[in-house]
Amino acid sequence: MLLLPQDRGFIHPHPSEITPRESYLRRRDWLLAGAAMAVGGPAALGSGPAHAQGKGPKLAGARSSVAGAMAMDAPTAYNDATTYNNFYEFGTDKSDPARNAHTLKTRPWTVAIEGEVKKPKTWDIDELLKLAPMEERIYRLRCVEGWSMVIPWVGYSLSELIRQAEPTGNAKFVEFVTLADPKTMPYVGSRVLDWPYVEGLRLDEAMQPLTLLSFGMYGEVLPNQNGAPVRLVVPWKYGFKSAKSIVKIRFVEKQPRTAWVKAAAQEYGFYSNVNPKVDHPRWSQATERRIGEAGGIFAKKRPTLMFNGYEPQVGQLYAGLDLAKNY
Ligand SMILES: Nc1nc2c(c(=O)[nH]1)N[C@H]1C(S)=C(S)[C@@H](COP(=O)(O)O)O[C@H]1N2
Ligand SMILES: [Mo]
Fold it and tell me: Is the CB of 197 under 6 A from ligand 1?
């Protein structure tokens, strides 16, 4: 683990320091996924058991019709997506969240809607689950560290909730505050980050239909380590923008100070759009390693796509913005 110069906080490791948990099993999963594609063809995705599941409570979602919501990439094996995680409240190693997050209590749970809205409200999670029809969406998730996954999420557009809140004319940004409970989260209280983990979006980004409020994945309720009971998924931005275990959503006039900007503003910006042409100060962002792909660390890297491949849907949001300055 690398500490910041001022000896506080954690910085993302350089991609070369990440030891992938390569295994015979993963290779087998990939071969099976390949075989399934060969039999069913791409049309098999999203219909029938397109992906393996775990043993959690089911949460079904109808195939999404939102533009760009159904990536054709083969989903990452369930076992990889639930054991290779970033959730620093539970530890900084990739295997820590799966090991430690069983302490997270997801009921009772509320999400408070506050700030520049006409209808502030504290939603009970079970009420929030019924606010809009559940959809399944297959998104690529690109971590700033240089790896990616493909995950079938279950949820609905965040815009559904925002519409209920009726933002005022002063609402320009949305701030997402996540749970920081030192009793159940062993790293809260450590100097890894300035807790709680806070993220933010511009209001128009938050309203973009791809921005997902997610309650599940792989046809099941979210595992704790993936951000139960409710998280954000913003597929065209680096993974850290997709805040887990949200307890508060605030509508504000000024750009929120996010946890990663506070930790290292020179490395992580507010926008954090996936951009192969804007390198991280310590490594290139031009390519990525798809978790679970055969060959492990020796597998050929994939080129990283502008806006993680969602440019047709979101490019217009940034017309006229200097993406190198606004990283
Ligand atoms: N509350 C919280 N949310 C978080 C994080 C975190 O440490 N705490 N890590 C982020 C990072 S860096 C990534 S890459 C994604 C990983 O999501 P996944 O583990 O479900 O793949 O969650 C993001 N959301
Ligand atoms: Mo990440």
Answer: yes
- CA dist., res. 85 & res. 56, Å (int): 18
Ligand 1 atom closest to Cα of residue 193? 7
The CATH number of residue 269's host domain is 3.90.420.10
Strand partners, 155: 135, 214
Looking at 60-168, which runs of residues are DSSP E strands? 62-63, 110-115, 121-124, 135-142, 147-157
| pLDDT score at 160 | 98
What is the structure's pLDDT at 300? 87
- Pairing between strand 246-252 and 110-115? parallel
Structure token digits, residue 85:
């995680």
- Structural domain contains residue 31: no
Domain count, the chain: 1
Spatial neighbors of 95 by CB under 8 A, at least 6 apart, are: 21, 83, 84
Note down the domain range covering 54.
50-318
Cβ(214) – ligand 1 distance below 6 Å: no
Strand duo 135-142 + 147-157: pairing:
antiparallel
pLDDT in tens, 118-137: 999 999 999 999 999 999 99
Nearest Cα neighbor of 304 from 321, 281, 283 is: 283
If one residue of 10, 83, 87 were mutated to test the ligand 1 pocket, choosing by the most ligand atoms within 8 A of its CB, it would be: 87
Asked if residue 29 belongs to a domain, the reply is no
Q: What predicted TM-score, i.e. pTM, was given to this entire model?
A: 0.88
Question: For the chain, which ranges sit under pLDDT 50?
Answer: 1-8, 19-49
Q: Is residue 1 part of a domain?
A: no
Separation between Cα atoms, residue 74 and residue 21, nearest integer Å: 19
- For residue 324, being part of any structural domain is answered with no
